[in-house]
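Ops channel
N.P.: pipeline sanity check, posting one input/output pair.
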């Protein structure tokens, strides 16, 4: 193992490895990804080459949605959130990152800055939604316990998350998105 490759996180066997590529473009006091790292709920990555090659990378510009069938890949290789400013996201995701890309289906933000806005999720919300959809619901709830506002994310998105986590393919998922949004 090289110094550029993250060591295996100390997760229970029922938990998925979580990584955050920290680009430090936002206010550190409001950064949900930094708090996940601080509480050892996610492993920090500081360079794109540190992203595990088989990991599933959350990318809002990906062509494929995250589905429950992605669970094995998440369990085996991990889930990566890229912590960057929304204003710079299009440039950040133009860069080739290792791993497979997936975008989340439409959800409402619960964070105070973008409350009830479609798709304006924090890294914490995106990771929690991904974990929920792929069947790691307890781990999603644990992540959401670190901010006072974050448990409301599950309440706000209860029905969509249940339906999204049951979707068998892209067609079924797109139909669910159109029904909710």
């Amino acid at each position: 193992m090289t110094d550029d490759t993250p060591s295996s996180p100390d997760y229970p066997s029922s938990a998925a490895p979580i990584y955050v590529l920290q680009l430090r473009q936002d206010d550190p006091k409001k950064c949900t990804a930094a708090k996940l790292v601080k509480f050892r709920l996610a492993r920090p990555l500081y360079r794109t080459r540190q992203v595990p090659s088989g990991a599933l990378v959350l990318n809002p510009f990906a062509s494929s949605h995250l589905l429950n069938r992605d669970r094995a890949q998440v369990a085996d290789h991990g889930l990566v959130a890229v912590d960057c400013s929304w204003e710079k996201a299009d440039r950040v995701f133009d860069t080739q990152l290792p791993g497979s890309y997936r975008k989340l289906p439409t959800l409402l933000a619960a964070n105070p800055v973008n409350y009830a806005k479609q798709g304006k999720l924090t890294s914490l919300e995106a990771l929690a939604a991904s974990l929920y959809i792929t069947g790691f619901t307890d781990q999603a709830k644990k992540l959401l316990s670190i901010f006072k506002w974050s448990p409301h994310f599950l309440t706000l998105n209860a029905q969509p998350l249940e339906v999204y986590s049951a979707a068998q393919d892209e067609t079924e998922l797109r139909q669910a998105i159109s029904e909710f949004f």
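N.P.: looks fine end to end. The chain has one domain: 18-180.
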